[in-house]
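Is this the right way to post structure tokens for a design question? Let me know if I should format differently. Anyway, here goes:
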């Protein structure tokens, strides 16, 4: 272990771990370099249990295959977690399991947040998969992997603030609608911009029903039950259940206009060659929010907007839990403090909510255009 001065305020810290030479460049003072040296020594000491069984050369590649076959593929979220597991394989697959110590896991996690710049909640989801896999490796598979302690326990991860309740104010939503309407037609023409039309529909469904983004992306036209006033949520994101959410007459009127313009079986079909409709929506939503001058807002906050307005309009917390598809009422109770006793509950809370979402004049022009195309195809 050594600290070498390379230049003014530039040091190189060297040490050996797991039978391999390691080093890190430190920009700063000699005191900072010494502090990092001490931290590396401490981590190495904590990870010595990983070197006990060096004769066991079980690679991460094999562990990943074993984990996926016995656990990963059986999860309800298997489709989403497959890419996470393959990401771990790409980063650490050739290493022996006994070499994947706390520092290796920390470097892998730091790469997610600092290099790939994943969102905090996304990086945390990746870490949970890693932690679960290494827990199995250090317990029921310890004799074949050569480790008896989970190295991921030593890693500090940033957690999402689950108490966040950011929602659109009654002043912000009209600005959002105006921004949507302004981009409804292709520049300099009367042709409808289908990308922005889908974004408008995505926003209206999210804020008018509280559905999750993944649920909306999987909606098909057949899921819109106009006669019953319901939307069928078939996306099995939470415990594999299918539920129904109310379809207000106003939202139904908005949705009814689109099939003639958009076509397709899916309401929000992916573009040819696209691997993620979500990424496309994120970029479009960011541009929309900038145009509407709305800050500190993300797509999931549209769901918070529905829930918050629901409670402020006199909604029932237990009914809200069912509408949102929450498996535990505690997840819904965060909205309880938004209820206002002086607001008299009307026959339809959904219609009260829609009163806040009055479409702008541009929306009527879209309606007329959509209706004309619908009549032409009839």
């Amino acid at each position: 272990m050594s600290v070498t001065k390379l230049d003014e305020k530039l040091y190189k810290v060297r040490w050996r771990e797991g039978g391999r030479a390691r080093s890190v460049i430190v920009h700063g003072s000699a005191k900072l370099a010494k502090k990092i040296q001490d931290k590396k020594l401490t981590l190495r000491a904590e990870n010595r249990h990983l070197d006990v069984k060096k004769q066991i050369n079980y690679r991460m590649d094999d562990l990943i295959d074993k984990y996926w076959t016995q656990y990963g593929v059986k999860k309800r979220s298997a489709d989403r977690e497959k890419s996470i597991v393959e990401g771990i394989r790409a980063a650490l697959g050739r290493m022996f399991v006994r070499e994947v110590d706390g520092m290796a896991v920390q470097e892998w996690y730091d790469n997610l947040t600092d290099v790939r710049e994943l969102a905090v909640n996304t990086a945390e989801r990746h870490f949970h998969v890693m932690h679960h896999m290494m827990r199995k490796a250090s317990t029921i598979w310890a004799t074949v992997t050569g480790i008896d302690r989970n190295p991921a326990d030593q890693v500090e991860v940033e957690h999402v603030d689950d108490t966040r309740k950011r929602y659109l104010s009654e002043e912000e939503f009209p600005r959002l609608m105006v921004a949507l309407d302004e981009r409804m037609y292709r520049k300099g023409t009367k042709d409808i911009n289908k990308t922005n039309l889908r974004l408008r529909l995505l926003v209206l469904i999210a804020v008018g029903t509280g559905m999750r983004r993944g649920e909306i992306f999987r909606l098909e036209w057949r899921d819109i039950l106009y006669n019953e006033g319901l939307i069928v949520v078939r996306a099995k994101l939470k415990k594999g259940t299918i539920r129904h959410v109310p379809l207000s007459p106003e939202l139904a009127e908005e949705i009814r206009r689109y099939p003639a313009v958009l076509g397709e079986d899916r309401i929000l079909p992916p573009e040819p060659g696209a691997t993620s409709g979500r990424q496309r929506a994120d970029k479009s939503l960011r541009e929309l929010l900038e145009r509407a001058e709305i800050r500190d807002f993300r797509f999931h906050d549209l769901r918070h907007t529905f829930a918050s307005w629901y409670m402020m309009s006199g909604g029932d917390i237990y009914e809200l839990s069912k509408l949102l598809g929450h498996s535990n009422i505690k997840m819904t109770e965060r909205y309880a403090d938004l209820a206002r006793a002086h607001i008299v509950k009307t026959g339809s809370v959904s219609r009260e909510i829609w009163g806040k979402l009055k479409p702008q004049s541009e929306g009527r022009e879209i309606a007329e255009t959509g209706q004309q195309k619908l009549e032409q195809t009839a």
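Format looks fine. Someone answered above. Worth noting: Residues 172-377 form a domain with the hpI Integrase; Chain A fold (CATH 1.10.443.10). The chain is about 50% helix and 10% strand.
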